[in-house]
Amino acid sequence: GESVGLHLPTLSVQEGDNSIINCAYSNSASDYFIWYKQESGKGPQFIIDIRSNMDKRQGQRVTVLLNKTVKHLSLQIAATQPGDSAVYFCAENGGFLGAQKLVFGQGTRLTINP
Amino acid sequence: EPEVTQTPSHQVTQMGQEVILRCVPISNHLYFYWYRQILGQKVEFLVSFYNNEISEKSEIFDDQFSVERPDGSNFTLKIRSTKLEDSAMYFCASRGAGNEQFFGPGTRLTVL
Predict the structure, then answer these.
(1) How far apart are CA A31 and CA A100, in angstroms?
(2) Measured between alpha carbons, how far is A36 from B92 in angstroms, rounded to an integer?
(3) What span, in angstroms and rounded, lies between the C-alpha atoms of A107 and A38?
(4) Among A38, A97, A105, whose Cβ lies nearest the Cβ of B55?
(5) Cα dist. A48→A105, B12, B46, B83, B90 in Å?
(6) Residue A3's pLDDT is what?
(7) CA distances from residue A24 to A7, A38, A71, A89 in whole angstroms, order as listed
(8) Secondary structure E strands in B38-99
(9) Are A7 and A22 in contact (CB under 8 A)?
(10) What is the pLDDT of residues A51-93, one digit of tens each?
(11) How far apart are CA A62 and CA B87, in angstroms?
(12) Listed residue (A67, A68, A73, A47) closest to A59, CA to CA
């Protein structure tokens, strides 16, 4: 069945360094992926998305890379800041007829050390 | 900036009682969702709703669950007879014409 998973449950980086969060997915038919950020006590917040016809997409300080060959997704955060500390989820956009339910991975807790 | 709102922020109930969780999606959105997150676990899809009917539901969304859009602004999730294992954060989300789902802040449901 479809599943989206994460390689590491926790990640600590020094403020100012770059961070990379990884995600593996199993549904080769997936065509749309999203990264969400969840701060303590809040709902998931959209960061960046990517369609399966792309390998890379860049936003402000964030880059998502998609490797369809090995079914791997990563989120790179450049020049990390204390506000980047959160749990990061990758999600696959599934469903039918555009209903688009999200299938979330387990989450990686990113801690930015001062 | 428009946002999804949810009430209450925290709901405590006795096992077997009915609860209604309320959500106000972003006003021009057409697709609505409920997700839940058990403490320390991943976010799980419950149900999607479009054009006044359920589009898709997960195995979690059994006969004890129902959703309703009673008017033009609210979207509710009802649990008829709560169980201990229903304790979780419940997130409402809405989506417009694009792909991005906007999440509310969640309601923490505690079943005693």
Answers:
(1) 11
(2) 15
(3) 9
(4) A97
(5) 15, 35, 23, 36, 23
(6) 52
(7) 7, 19, 6, 11
(8) 43-50, 53-57, 65-68, 75-79, 88-95
(9) yes
(10) 989 999 999 999 999 999 999 999 999 999 999 999 999 998 8
(11) 34
(12) A47
Instruction: Report CB contact under 8 Å: A49, B31.
Output: no
- Best mutation site among A10, A30, A101 for testing chain B: the one with the most B CBs within 10 Å? A101
Phi-psi region of B27 (alpha: psi -120 to 50; beta: other; left: phi over 0): alpha
A3 at B interface, C-beta within 8 A = no
d(CA A86, CA A91): 16
Residue A83 has φ and ψ, to the nearest 5°, of -70, -10
Closest Cα partner for B34 from B111, B104, B108, B112?
A: B104
* Alpha-carbon gap, residue B34 to B89, rounded angstroms: 10
